[in-house]
Write a structure and sequence with these properties.
Order of helices and strands: HEEEEHEEEE
Radius of gyration: 19 Å
Number of helices: 2
Number of domains: 1
CATH class: Mainly Beta
Length: 135
């Protein structure tokens, strides 16, 4: 069964217009700013610990904690949306990340993206991926 092209456009319009406003915020604790709603939001668990080999060759694992890694993926970001996120990341301090009803202290792991329209005066960024790690 082939899905008509207009069905994808209707779905995109629905998801872009029916997102929760203010659902994603980033910034200094108590002074968070609303950032663009991601196309995809994923939470991964990161195990923090040490691994050492004993003299007899057995592996000794010391699990210290399990932290969360937040991955926000954007298909397209305007220059204004990118600047809002980048301004908060440039503070180089622990930030507060609010999503839905949760709040976490985070630091930035990476924020890679591709420039979409090089010759335009207003750049558009595509395939942006913001990775935050719980502290």
């Amino acid at each position: 069964m082939k899905i008509p092209a207009y069905a994808f456009k209707v779905r995109e319009r629905f998801y872009s217009q029916n997102n929760i406003l203010g659902a994603y915020q980033l910034g200094l604790p108590g002074a968070e700013v609303t950032i663009a709603t991601p196309w995809k939001f994923k939470i991964e668990a990161i195990e923090i610990g040490n691994e050492d080999r004993a003299a007899d060759g057995t592996l000794k694992v010391d699990n210290i904690a399990i932290k969360k890694k937040f991955i926000l993926t954007y298909k397209i970001l305007t220059e204004a949306q990118r600047i809002i996120i980048q301004t908060e990341l440039d503070r180089k301090v622990s930030l507060s990340f609010k999503y839905l009803t949760f709040t976490n202290a985070v630091s930035c792991l990476s924020f890679p993206m591709e420039l979409s329209n090089v010759n335009s005066s207003l750049p558009v960024w595509k395939n942006a991926k913001l990775e935050l790690k719980e502290e």
